[in-house]
């Protein structure tokens, strides 16, 4: 799938898009050179992948941060009954973020070594005895609307947008967009050998073009917040 726009043409860039549903596979394909640049992951996920994999990636730069939300048929978090089923993404990139959001809302606690590849197995305590159901993240809105056995669903911003939900307005809770969540800032990543590739750096600059940002803001109703920071800033993330 090819993408082009006047800004890309002006920078002599030809962009071909490939869609992956498996983040780990996409990172491996990028690390071995089958994919030039990928644009799906948070800095935390990127760091965890590099720690776990012999194949290494390099971060080209930051793009945006978009909050994940907790959506429910109930009107408040307190109304979600003990023992309720909470649906969350089956993929590592979003499952860990969802669990962190539940922990931030004091619904569960997480093990001290919890990271961006962690899963429900890394829950330390679950005082409300919630049950967890792993789902394909792209089905989150459908599960919310149609599966009455589920009390709440953790949904990524992109999936919420596709289902005509605004995570900032419709969720019972959502990730904060501030320094405390900068580990969730998304990046462009490439194979480590391509870290200083000038063409890829041009692609990063294109992302922050004012016209591109204007389109993103309109397209995603302000839920993708631009972040134009150095990688050194992200390395300070806890």
From TrEMBL:
Keywords: Lipoprotein, Membrane, Palmitate, Signal
Pfam families: Lipoprotein_9 (PF03180)
Keyword Transferase carried by entry: no
Subcellular location: Membrane
Protein name: ABC-type metal ion transport system, periplasmic component/surface antigen
GO annotation, cellular component aspect: membrane
Keyword Lipoprotein: yes
Membrane topology note: Lipid-anchor
